[in-house]
Write a structure and sequence with these properties.
19% of the residues lie in helices and 11% in strands. Strands 1-2 form a two-stranded antiparallel ribbon. The protein is globular, with a radius of gyration of 15 Å. Bound molecules: FE2/S2 (inorganic) cluster. The site of FE2/S2 (inorganic) cluster (FES) has 12 residues, from helix 2.
Length: 75
């Protein structure tokens, strides 16, 4: 029986986003977010850190169920 750690070893979440950087971290000023901002959590977006809908293809191909983080202002 494989443990979760066994399954994680040798796998990468990030396949293509800014691989030359030792760590991908982003900062967004709250004032720059308008009504809402949609952030990628699947690491497949071509507009990372923002979601471009690529999670749908990823989920179809892998059986995964990931989706974006939506930050929005209260109305
Ligand atoms: Fe990654 Fe939408 S593209 S969560």
């Amino acid at each position: 029986v494989k443990t979760l750690l066994d399954k994680q070893l040798g796998t990468a979440v990030n396949l293509s986003v800014r691989k030359s950087e030792s760590k991908v971290a982003d900062s967004v000023d709250i004032e720059d977010i308008g009504k809402q901002a949609v952030f990628c959590r699947c690491w497949r977006s071509s507009k990372f850190p923002y979601c471009d809908g690529s999670h749908n293809k990823h989920n179809t191909l892998t059986g995964d169920n990931v989706g974006p983080l939506i930050i929005k202002k209260k109305e």
